[in-house]
Specification:
This protein has seven helices and two strands; from the N terminus they run H-H-E-E-H-H-H-H-H. Strand 1 (56-57) and strand 2 (65-66) form a beta hairpin. It is elongated. The protein folds into two domains: 7-40; 81-182. It has helices at 3-17, 20-39, 81-93, 97-114, 126-136, 141-156, 163-182; strands spanning 56-57, 65-66. Helix 5 (126-136) runs antiparallel to helix 6 (141-156). By secondary structure, it is an all-alpha fold.
Amino acid sequence: MSFSRWWTETTAALGDHLPLPLAALLLVLLTALTATAWYTFPGWLPRRLPRPRRRRRTGTGNGKLEPTPPVTVAAPPPAGPVGTVLVADRLAAEGRYAEAVRERLRVMLHQLTDRHVVQVRPGMTVAEVVSDAAANHPPAGPPLTAAAAIFSEVWYAQRPATAEHDHRMRDQAGRLGELLATAPSRTDDGR
């Protein structure tokens, strides 16, 4: 069968089931949807997928694209909870509240592991950490539950983070720090 005969028969069969104006309208809508998706390409990808790196033109005059130079940091923050608090404060000062909320949760996890309240393993969810910590040290349950709710609202529900989120997370981290400071430290064997 030749292509022209196949095209004629397929078009005739389609015309028997679908009016031509409706087929044309569907084709225009499909074209508009494809063009919109193409125009807004990186925006509609989920956050966790890798995004294409942007390149910029340099002043070399030859028109070639050069990769963007890497961002250098003067000095890395100190390791541990103190460094993470400094990072969280810096992020909040820059208005990057979602990242600040995440860093404050990391501070809380550092406190829990340093005091041997919970053994954080890779792949644990926030809910698992909260339930383990509440079982091992019940007074830590309420601030951890509140912090997990704030974290989940910002990161999982993808609601825009505000200064209020960061302030509430800072309060919960402070409450947890006070509770852990007054409680005796557990040893590795659970006593």
